[in-house]
Amino acid sequence: MNEFLKILRYAVPYKRYAIGHIISNVFFALFSTLSFVVLIPMLNVIFEKNVDPCTKEVITTIPAKPVYNGIFEIEQYGKEFFTYQMYSFSGGDKSKTLLFVIILLVLTFFLKNVSSYLAKYFMVFVRNGVIRDLRNTVYKKILELPLSYFSEKRKGDIIARATGDINDLQNSMLPILELAIREPLTIIFTLVAMLYISTKLTLFIFIFIPLFAFLISKIGKSLKRKSDRVQKEQGLFLSTLEETLSGLRIIKGFNAEDQFDEKFKDSTQRYYNFYNKLLIRQNLASPTSEFLGICMVSVILWYGGNLIFNGTDSSFLDGSQFMAYIGLAYNILTPAKAFSRGLVNVKKGGAAAERIQEVLETENPLKDKENAIENLDFATNIEFKNISFKYEDEYVLKDFTLNIPKGKTVALVGQSGSGKSTIANLITRFYDVNKGEILIDGINVKNLKKSALRKQLGIVTQDAILFNASIKENLLLGNETATDQDVIEALKIANAWEFVEELPEGINTNIGDSGNKLSGGQKQRLSIARAVLKSPPIMILDEATSALDTESERVVQIALENLMKNRTSIVIAHRLSTIQNADEIVVLKKGEIVEQGKHNELIAKDGAYKKLVKMQSLE
Questions:
Q1: Same fold, 379-456+537-546+562-576+583-619 and 459-535
Q2: Do the strands 538-542 and 457-461 form a parallel or antiparallel pair, or are they unpaired?
Q3: Rounded Cα–Cα distance for residues 279 and 223 (Å)
Q4: How far is it, in rounded angstroms, from Cα 10 to Cα 131?
Q5: Treating both helix axes as pointing N-terminal to C-terminal, what angle do 208-246 and 319-360 enclose, rounded to 10 degrees?
Q6: Through-space distance between the first and last CA atoms of the chain, rounded to whole angstroms
Q7: Cα(613)–Cα(599) distance, rounded to whole angstroms?
């Protein structure tokens, strides 16, 4: 229930619709009860002579117009008013009296259904609003969480939480919002009417209510456990599907289709088994509640009938009242069943709510400080000051110190795992250092707003990350206000305009999922153009040419040189031919600087850098 209350917070912005829903449900519950109470005078008219519908006495005189004597006599006033109106309409004619009661019955049912429609109308805005806001909140949280969170989670599981789990809430937990007012009120009003008709009989049936609640709660408890297993398994096969779509080329290339097919089938089989058990238990709730209800009505028929037959209750319970009482008792079953199903669904939806809350309540270690600096104009230098960092247990950077003056190009080289890309992750604050500090113009990056820091940075990675949109839309990520001419100029600087202008729709051409309609070199040049359009003072190039063939590398390298003009650049290089003109080359080994200097100086040292050069046959 705690999970339900947390989800309920999202309904606060829709309180005016909620109030309309509550008011409509109050009237629905009232008219639902009156629709059975009105049966009493109709049955009296059919089976008896002209009688007072409340006192059951034969009407021999014209009833006087009632006088209102205050709230404490409202019940007597109501009886006299109803009798007066009925007699005024019929003039004592039995058939007219019957017509009056039927009109009243139709009116009661009409008002009941109008109230029901209005309640559902208002709830549409509440339910859909809650789901929309919840989806938006989960998506925003996903955007805010650090990269470290996603390295520990399966993508499919996160997708399942943002889609399947929220759908489960919509279908299982949120419908209780509709039932939370209507069904309890219907039960309360009905019980009040039943108590009024026969207190003794109503108190007798109360012994069934705890039994009813106990059995339903036992069913509900097991549903939460089974639902949790279903949702986890759904996340697993969605992860397999996502991995399959991402790695289809490798799967086919290694003839691994059968392996992945078996893996997916195993997961869907477990999902099948878990879901079957869940639905079997869930479907048990409705017949159980209905059977208990008919048992209750049967006991009422037996006990109430004996009261009448024995004459022990004849002073306040006659045939018409008893029939109306049976109708009221059965009227409790529908809201009771609906409410019990709702409570069962709350248990079932609790597992989904927990999984969603787990994402929403995940602490973000990279939050901006309260008084973080919002604006920065890069002016002097970037300094890595005795920084150490580890992803898990072992440090991948150890006491790393480096100063990069504005306008200079610094290249980081070394074998895989030496910590080069980690430096790019740290300066962008995808991760925070464990020791030491990173300073820009003497300001610790932790004291800057992330948006202010990243506004100063342009990033071109080894994998050209593009989106299923047009070339223009992909480039505008760097500068939303750029004109078409600005986009074209950026493409020219990146040596990309030559192929873009030949495309069917130019810059408005859709490039497909991950840009798969383009070659590797073309995608990389679009990444460079995106960075050019952003025009940041600091560029980070993370092995931007390592995945390209020689011809593409040459074209992209020219584009990179254009990009780095008049900018401070940190170049992480695998191919050393691309960084020979750097102002400074830093050689890393196991997270530590082993050499530092210009290309010719490092070659002359005949050390680690020269060995890397020889390995690549550059001399």
A1: yes
A2: parallel
A3: 9
A4: 8
A5: 30
A6: 71
A7: 10
Q: What is the pLDDT at residue 382?
A: 92
Question: pLDDT digits over 262-307, tens only?
Answer: 888 888 888 888 888 877 776 776 677 667 667 766 776 777 667 6
How many other C-beta atoms can be found within 10 angstroms of the C-beta atom of residue 19?
11
Number of neighbouring beta carbons within 10 Å of residue 600: 9
Among candidates 96, 168, 181, which has minimal Cα distance to 135?
168
> 379-456+537-546+562-576+583-619 has which fold?
Rossmann fold (3.40.50)
Average pLDDT over residues 582-606: 89
Q: Is the pLDDT of residue 329 over 80?
A: no
CATH class of 459-535: alpha beta
Strand 538-542 to 568-572 pairing: parallel
Which CATH homologous superfamily contains domain 2-14+122-360?
Answer: ABC transporter type 1, transmembrane domain (1.20.1560.10)
pLDDT band at 146 (very low <50, low <70, confident <90, very high): confident
pLDDT tens digits along 216-273: 666 655 665 666 777 778 777 777 777 777 667 667 666 777 888 888 888 888 888 8
Q: Which of 34, 38, 41, 35 is nearest to 59 (CA)?
A: 41
Q: What are the sequence ranges of the domains in the chain?
A: 2-14+122-360, 379-456+537-546+562-576+583-619, 459-535
Q: What is the 3-state secondary structure (H, E, C) of 9-45?
A: HHHHHHHHHHHHHHHHHHHHHHHHHHHHHCHHHHHHH
- Other C-beta atoms within 10 Å of 459: how many? 22
Please state, in angstroms and rounded to a whole number, the distance separating the CA atoms of residues 32 and 186. Answer: 7
Query: Regarding predicted confidence, which is higher, 339 or 270?
Result: 270
Predicted confidence (pLDDT) at residue 314 exceeds the cutoff of 50: no
Which amino acid is present at 386? N
- Flag the least confident range among 144-148, 216-220, 257-261, 591-595: 216-220
Would the CA dihedral through 213, 218, 223, 224 be positive or negative?
Answer: positive
Strand order in the sheet with 538-542: 457-461, 538-542, 568-572, 409-414, 584-589, 592-597
* Dihedral sign of CA atoms 611, 613, 615, 619 in order: negative
Mean pLDDT of 17-35: 87
The length of the chain, given as a count of residues: 619
Q: Can you read off the two tokens belonging to residue 107?
A: 């009116």
Q: Which token pair is 431?
A: 């991760």
Question: Containing H/E element for 121?
Answer: helix 94-144
- Tell me: the pLDDT tens digits for 406-449? 989 899 988 888 888 889 889 988 889 999 999 999 999 999 99
Residue 68: CA count within 13 A, CB half-sphere: 4
Closest listed residue to residue 6, CA positions, set 144, 133, 128, 119: 133
327/321 Cα distance (integer angstroms)? 10
Torsion, Cα 554 560 562 563, to 10 degrees, reads 170
Query: What count of other Cβ atoms lies within 10 Å of the Cβ of residue 236?
Result: 21
Residue 461 has pLDDT above 50, yes or no: yes
Taking the C-alpha atoms of residue 470 and residue 44, their distance in angstroms, rounded to an integer, is 77
Question: Cβ neighbours of residue 58 under 8 Å, at least 6 residues apart?
Answer: 49, 50, 51, 52
Q: What's the CA gap between 228 and 9, in Å, rounded?
A: 23
